[in-house]
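Encode chain A's predicted structure.
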Amino acid sequence: MMASFVNVFKLVCFVAVVCMVVGAPKGSEAAISCGQVVRYLTPCVSYLANGGSVPATCCSGIKSLYGLARTTADRQGVCNCLKQAVSGVPYTPYNLNLAAGLPKKCGVNIPYKISPSTDCKSVK
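Encoded structure for chain A:
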């Protein structure tokens, strides 16, 4: 059970990549820590594991993280942090579909697909 929770949590973290890939002014250093990313996305774990209604706290976290990632360096840093967190995690199509739809359900419009194969260098 704990391994399943860890895998879903890692998938939640990956969802944040989507929130980092909107156009914004370029910067030189990422100011968002991996710890911050985890804190903002922890409320999404139950939804990604079980489906159902997206918790308001999950959407608040996604929106907050989206607002914090203002520079290219921020978004790439978050992306790299998340890629490291999800490496080697087996996903089910069910979990991936929930993750892919999460930003839209939270009212965050992003032009990229959520995917474990996201190239963080292409995140602008």
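DSSP finds six helices and no strands in the chain.
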